[in-house]
Design brief:
Layout lengths: L1 H10 L23 H4 L29 E18 L18 E11 L4 E8 L4 E4 L12 E16 L4 E19 L8 E22 L2 E8 L2 E11 L9 E11 L2 E9 L4 E10 L8 E4 L4 E4 L7 E11 L4 E11 L16 E13 L2 E12 L3 E5 L11 E19 L1
Antiparallel strand pairs: 1-2, 1-20, 2-3, 3-5, 4-5, 5-6, 6-7, 7-8, 7-9, 8-11, 9-10, 10-13, 11-12, 12-15, 13-14, 15-16, 16-17, 17-18, 18-20, 19-20
GO cellular component, one term: cell outer membrane
GO molecular function: long-chain fatty acid transporting porin activity
Subcellular location: Cell outer membrane
Length: about 425
C-alpha cells in the first residue's frame, strides 16, 4: 500500500510547491515585494506613498510617479522550520527533519514614467511564489517529502490614468514563469532512493486597481491581482518500480493556477509628520481544489487534493517623519493560513502567523532614497501535523508531530528619481 500510494505523493508535489514558505506567507506565496512596506508589515501597501512598489498590489498607485522613478528592492529571508515526530511514529528513530527551510534572496524592481499630468506607464519584475525546503538524506517523514524547489518570475507592464487629485485607476498585464523541481524517498527505509518531478510553464493574468482621496489627508486604495493559469509540462522519474509503474522517466502534465488576490488599504494623516495606515488582504486559495496530473498518454494518475481555505491578512502600521531626510515606520500583522490541521502536511506545515516589523527611509540626496525593513514572524498557534488514514496525504505511514517555525526578514531598497 505504501509503494502504491507514494506515486501519488511524489506527483502531488507539484501542488505543494511552496514548502519553504510556511513561515513566510500563506500557502506558497511570497509577500516580500517591497522594503518600504516591509517596515509596516505591509500596512498601506495598496494606497501608495513615496515608493511605487505599491503597484505590485494596486497598479493605480503608479500615478504617484513624478517624472521617472526606478527602484530596486532586495529581501533576505532567513527561516527556521523543524518537524519533530511523536515517539509513536514508526520511523521516529530517524529523528526530526532538521531545519527544512533554506535561506532565500528575493529581488524585485519597479520603474514608473509620467507621460503627462494624466497618463503613466510602469513595469514591475517580481518573484511572487517560491522558496525551497531540503531535509537530510534520511528522516522520519522522507516518504512524504525530501526536497522542494520552486522558482517564479512575474513581469507586469502597467498603465495608469489620473482623473484628478481624487481618483486614479490602473491596469497591468502579468507574464509569469513558474518552475517546480521536487523529490521524495521511494520508501521509509534508510538509504531509500529518490524519485523526482519537474515541470514549468509561462502563464498570463492581469492586475487592476483604483485609488481614492475623498478628503485631504485620507487615502484609500483597492487592488486586484488575477489568478495566473499554468499548463505545467515536465517529467516524473523513479529509480524503482512503484506499484504497476516500472522504473523510468515519464512525461507528465498538470493544470494549476496561482491564486487571485484582493488588497484594500487606507492611510490617514494625523499630523504633518505622522500617518497611520492599515491593510486587509484576501487570497483565493480555494480555487486550487483538486487538479489532475496526467501522463503524456492522457491517462490520469491522480487528482491533487489541495482543498485549501481562502486566507486573510490584516495589518496596521504607522510612519513618522523625523526630519526632511529620515522617516521611521513600524507595523504588526496577523495572517490566517489557508491550511489547518485537517490537511496540514510535512511538505507544507502552514499555520497562522504574527508579523512584527520596523523600518526606515533615508534621503541622502534630493533624488535618491534608501529603504530598510525588518520583520520577525512566528506561529500564532502550536502547529501539529496529523497524517492518518483519514488525511488526504496518507500513504500507509501514520505521522504525527510538532512543527516549530519562525523567520527573520531583512529588506533593503534604492529609489532614484531621474
Amino acid at each position: 500500500m505504501l509503494k502504491k500510494k507514494h506515486l501519488f505523493l511524489t506527483v502531488s508535489m507539484v501542488a505543494l510547491a511552496g514548502g519553504a514558505s510556511q513561515a513566510i506567507a500563506g500557502g506558497f506565496a511570497l509577500r516580500e515585494q517591497s522594503a518600504y512596506y516591509q517596515g509596516t508589515s505591509f500596512a498601506g501597501n495598496a494606497v501608495g506613498g513615496d515608493s511605487i512598489s505599491s503597484m505590485f498590489w494596486n497598479p493605480a498607485t503608479l500615478t504617484n510617479t513624478i517624472g521617472m522613478i526606478s527602484e530596486s528592492h532586495h529581501t533576505l529571508i532567513v527561516p527556521n522550520s523543524e518537524i519533530t515526530p511523536d515517539s509513536s511514529v514508526a520511523t521516529a528513530a530517524f529523528g526530526p527533519s532538521g531545519d527544512l527551510a533554506n535561506d532565500a534572496w528575493i529581488p524585485s524592481s519597479y520603474t514608473g514614467y509620467q507621460i503627462d499630468e494624466n497618463w503613466y506607464l510602469g513595469l514591475s519584475i517580481n518573484t511572487p511564489f517560491g522558496l525551497s525546503t531540503k531535509s537530510g538524506p534520511n528522516w522520519s517523514g522522507q516518504v512524504y517529502a525530501r526536497t522542494s524547489e520552486v522558482f517564479s518570475v512575474n513581469v507586469t507592464p502597467t498603465i495608469a490614468y489620473k482623473f484628478n487629485d481624487m481618483i486614479s485607476v490602473g491596469l497591468g498585464m502579468q507574464f509569469q514563469y513558474f518552475d517546480v523541481r521536487l523529490t521524495s524517498a521511494t520508501n521509509a527505509l534508510p538509504g531509500a532512493p529518490t524519485a523526482g518531478l519537474t515541470g514549468d510553464d509561462i502563464g498570463y493574468g492581469f492586475t487592476a486597481g483604483i485609488t481614492l482621496t475623498p478628503m485631504k489627508g485620507t487615502e484609500i486604495g483597492l487592488g486586484y491581482r488575477s489568478a495566473v493559469f499554468h499548463d505545467l509540462d515536465g517529467n516524473f522519474s523513479t529509480p524503482v518500480a512503484i506499484g504497476a509503474l516500472p522504473a523510468g522517466t515519464y512525461d507528465i502534465s498538470a493544470k494549476m493556477a496561482t491564486p487571485d488576490m484582493v488588497t484594500l488599504s487606507a492611510k490617514q494623516r494625523i499630523t504633518d509628520s505622522f500617518r497611520v495606515m492599515g491593510t486587509i488582504e484576501w487570497t483565493n486559495w480555494s480555487r486550487l481544489k483538486e487538479p489532475a496530473v496526467l501522463l503524456d498518454s492522457g491517462t490520469q494518475l491522480r487528482t491533487l487534493p489541495f482543498n485549501y481555505d481562502d486566507s486573510w491578512f490584516f495589518s496596521v502600521g504607522g510612519e513618522y517623519d523625523w526630519n526632511d531626510k529620515l522617516t521611521l515606520r513600524a507595523g504588526v500583522a496577523y495572517e490566517l493560513s489557508p491550511i489547518d490541521e485537517n490537511i496540514r502536511s510535512l511538505r507544507l506545515p502552514d499555520s497562522d502567523r504574527v508579523w512584527l516589523s520596523t523600518g526606515l527611509s533615508y534621503k541622502p540626496m534630493e533624488n535618491l532614497s534608501l529603504d530598510l525593513g525588518y520583520t520577525y514572524i512566528f506561529s500564532a498557534e502550536d502547529a501539529r501535523v496529523n497524517i492518518g488514514p483519514s488525511h488526504q496525504d496518507y500513504a500507509g505511514l501514520t505521522y504525527t508531530g510538532d512543527v516549530d517555525a519562525s523567520v527573520n526578514i531583512v529588506s533593503a531598497a534604492v529609489r532614484y528619481t531621474w
